[in-house]
């Protein structure tokens, strides 16, 4: 073991420190080639038949990761110097590369050249770190060639001209990515190659073939040093750019230095920034604030139109309210105080791969089969992306994935490259895959390591479980469950026993998932990553493998199952006298659907014990519910729809609003109560590391659209507290029976989303759950399909002293990151569900043009947005044909009305209209749902 | 302190009188000196100097600071000495503080010149990054590891060696910053500003024992001293600083005599030190 | 942060079970009765022993055994960030105490009644594991001073990061906030004389980590024995025996 020292210097808070680190060089780092005679081949990854071994330069990894992920590229040596450089430059590429290296199907070998005694190089005097690393790569390549001998060709792949030249001078085989891929003879692979920008390889600019048309479209980004200086001096503001989901020409940058959001209007001001990029923004002069539209370079080919979509369920999903009608008539509107700005530089890119399709175009003639095409992402926030392809004919009717590579200020659109094809546009399977990919949902089958963690099947409760002193035998209780029809992952069941003293013992029994999912196992890691099960219209993507989800954990009837129970003693007035928590064994006596349970309760002839239990529970639930509402809990309404799916074709047969019954509310009430009880218990024991759920109060700004609509129809809403809001919602009754529900739906979409958090990160007042008007809340009742509940189960078990708390709970940053991941997964799962419903709505109406009634929810310059209660969707209705601005319609913003010039017809908000729904295809392969006024 | 018997005292004094000291040296001969540079990887410069049984380490650390508003064109240097208890049990706890303070003050006087920095052995203007705004602050720390007399000369030599071993990172100042702001700087990772240490003086202490004075006294000899004169002399034979220690008075003519002798001794010391330093640098580069 | 790469290398290139390079040298301070320098990677300490000698403070004299005293100090330049701390801060006092107790346990104090032994340790460079390095240096210095000892005390630390037990943490690994178990053993007697841990660690993992630290101590003990043997040979040689 040899030793050498590396000297690094570092600055910290402006202080200059000389940091010295030891750097050990070793002779036990092996080459990873299975043919090697010298090295230990136990860890070898490179195949024995390989005639060529590739060594990658850093720039190749950074730019060509999509190509590397293609199985055609294999037998690759990844040097640790390259890994380190990639890690510093782009963490997501690093993670992808790491995944490749650990994938047993691929032959990627990590060679720790920096610690190998023969391949370590010390920086020479005056040598830049970059040059030193390039040299290290060449030294390592050379070492491999000499080490493996002439039988194997060791090829350095680099797009750095200088590095390639030096390598060739030193007698190393070196090629650019392009030439190497060409030599493989698979033309389709060439689409994956990112075309180097002109600095790297002196190729002629291939991006735009019409140089005469090239002019500067965007302002040059400022150099990093200037940005840092500007940020320091407060001229520029740093923040993450978020593009308006409903208007891609408007973006916001939350700036800490200003303490407000800065609005960025138009692609010109956004200056090539993508959603999620960290950018530096410069404020525009005050007189330009909020009149941004005229500054935008929105060109006609980019004209945006709104699509029909599902009704949003919270403020985070709802379109931003402002300036929808501003550009037509609002000259009197005083200059808004919201600051506007423009992007001057991008600090950190958030480029990813995007799902979408190519813009329809005719096949170009000639040109060697290479065509330039524009890619349109499904995600409207993403601009069109220019790509090059050799398989245009093949791709035009496909959903494809494309990655962005660069965007210079001369091109209107960023350029990127094709990654892979998902399938045909419009095909249900393809579109479902798109939904999954877009929402980053892992729908791959569970790996063998994960499945290895499952208990052997068939599984049944063992005597050990019954003997366990921590597990109470509750099999004698009459436990039952009520769920949606066809539910197979039953994670909750109830019992209700009348006690001799007139009180009731009520138990909520939750599937004991943590008995099977142990902390730190691959199964646990996988579940933690997935975070939640995802429910699409025609399929379910499980968080846990099927045997657990549908059998071992599922509290099915007439089988013994392990449970985690919360048991209360309640007075007939539903006052909780005592609460206890225990692990248990139960045997469910009945599995009912909501409809069945409701039918039993309603059928006065039935007097059997089960029905009596149901009625008792329902009575208690009603009292609890009322008490909760009195405390200020909001009764919100959402427009959930339910499909009836053809079992053969999986096509939707019917569609309708999901009906909420008393039985639903009854179950909900006890689940809420159990969650609250558990939240109290775990917080008492682990005040710093409990996982809770909070619902922040909506801000004034969020409530603005609701208040505006209410004002327009003369309704007075008090939003000072949740209680006040709940009361005024109750009072909002019109002549129209649907009026109240409509207002509630409008209120729902003004609410922020509830989120998970770690109790140590916030102060107790912030724990509040606004919607439920509860000071504490968590998720305990669905551990089969939500990972948050799994964590809470572990916390509760530790609070009871049954198990030790896994070490992860001592690591607060880690716990916070788990909570963040859960929020992210949760939201994505929701988005995917909606997207799936939207997709099926489209499929449903494809063959069924329908007339129905709709409600106007918002007034637009050339029409209005309607809500279709029956199908839970929302979309624009145009009064004038597209393109003609305004026409003879006048908007009255204050009263939310649109009137014909001559006053003959007028439409106002919340008014009922008859519409016609039909699927049209304005462009081939691009079907969309159109709403027209009848 | 060193407990000596009357016989031992006489032996030491007698030896000095006859120009044959207890360890066989002549009055003005130094003990063997050995220099090792770069002993502390974390410091910008460091050196360990052994002078017989005396063993000291000096380190130089550079930090970015603000120049004194009175002298906007000069960097700042401070010297602290610490006596480790390993050197002698008497330095235990706060026991070494008095001596440490005395040595620190003496070194500052001998190497740094006046408050304004004028006459300093180190070129303070070379430490300026942005005039009036930013400069390098050099912290020179001396540590006495083993003490066998003549600490001041050994520390002086160690500091000189450490300074010649010092590399200061190059600083690039961002242009365009206006006058009233903190300048934005970028510290280079590799380029070092090497110090010109040719002007750094050495310190020669002459200790008066009986009627004679000796150079490089050991601990035993120091216990017999009546007074001592430390003179710092640079390469050109210029006197950079001076101080007298010990209670007994000295005749001015003797002082002048001692100064000229120390100038003479310093020539040899500088030559010896230079060759030791360059040998040490070669050693360091090779290891 | 990743402290152990998937390839099984730590940030400085060691494997989890490997110690840093160690170096010991006897006789660094000529005036002391015994002294030594001990380095563990970039951590570098000097120890000097004075005694056995007359007790300075009569009140502390013990008629049946020797008085052992210890002082730990850090040089101003020993850390990356230069510090200027007054002597005798709480941390120094605590470490002084730990070293004293550990060394006292192995010195045969009953053979030297009414006398005093001073151990001074000075940290020249700190890069994690200073406690251990000080104890190792003190052992060498005591041996150099010829003070009778039951056994050689050696010390080493081990930690637990990225779910891996790591031997001999350096400063970066130490500042990661994970558990740090410092163990001192009497190598021949196989007895643990020092055990310190900060942060939490489950019992079963603790066992592994501590075992690892004990292995480290044993390796250091072997090395120290070699150093002493080599030193004795040199002395032999010089005396022409």
Automatic annotation (TrEMBL), chain A:
Residues 471-802 form the RNB domain. Keywords: Exonuclease, Exosome, Hydrolase, Magnesium, Nuclease, Nucleus, RNA-binding, rRNA processing. Its cofactor is Mg(2+). This is Uncharacterized protein. The lineage of its organism: Eukaryota, Viridiplantae, Streptophyta, Embryophyta, Tracheophyta. GO terms for cellular component: cytoplasmic exosome (RNase complex); nuclear exosome (RNase complex). Residues 298-307 have a biased composition (Acidic residues). Its main location: nucleus.
TrEMBL record, chain B:
One of its GO terms (molecular function) is mRNA 3'-UTR AU-rich region binding. Coiled coil: none annotated. It is found in: Cytoplasm; Nucleus, Nucleolus. Keywords: Cytoplasm, Exosome. Its main location: cytoplasm. GO terms for cellular component: cytoplasmic exosome (RNase complex); nuclear exosome (RNase complex); nucleolus. It holds the Pfam family RNase_PH_C. Residues 30-169, 199-263 form the Exoribonuclease phosphorolytic domain. One of its GO terms (biological process) is rRNA catabolic process. InterPro entries: ExoRNase_PH_dom1, ExoRNase_PH_dom2, ExoRNase_PH_dom2_sf, Exosome_comp_Rrp42_subfam, PNPase/RNase_PH_dom_sf, Ribosomal_Su5_D2-typ_SF. Gene3D superfamilies: GHMP Kinase, N-terminal domain. Belongs to the RNase PH family. This is Ribosomal RNA-processing protein 42. It comes from Aquilegia coerulea (Rocky mountain columbine). The lineage of its organism: Eukaryota, Viridiplantae, Streptophyta, Embryophyta, Tracheophyta.
From TrEMBL, chain C:
CDD domains: RNase_PH_RRP41 (cd11370). Keywords: Cytoplasm, Exosome. Its main location: cytoplasm. GO terms for biological process: nuclear mRNA surveillance; poly(A)-dependent snoRNA 3'-end processing; rRNA catabolic process; U4 snRNA 3'-end processing. SUPFAM superfamilies: Ribonuclease PH domain 2-like, Ribosomal protein S5 domain 2-like. It comes from the Eukaryota. Pfam families: RNase_PH, RNase_PH_C. One of its GO terms (molecular function) is RNA binding. One of its GO terms (cellular component) is cytoplasmic exosome (RNase complex). InterPro entries: ExoRNase_PH_dom1, ExoRNase_PH_dom2, ExoRNase_PH_dom2_sf, PNPase/RNase_PH_dom_sf, Ribosomal_Su5_D2-typ_SF, RNase_PH. It is found in: Cytoplasm; Nucleus, Nucleolus. Residues 18-148, 151-216 form the Exoribonuclease phosphorolytic domain. Belongs to the RNase PH family. PANTHER family: EXOSOME COMPLEX COMPONENT, EXOSOME COMPLEX COMPONENT RRP41. This is Uncharacterized protein. It comes from Aquilegia coerulea.
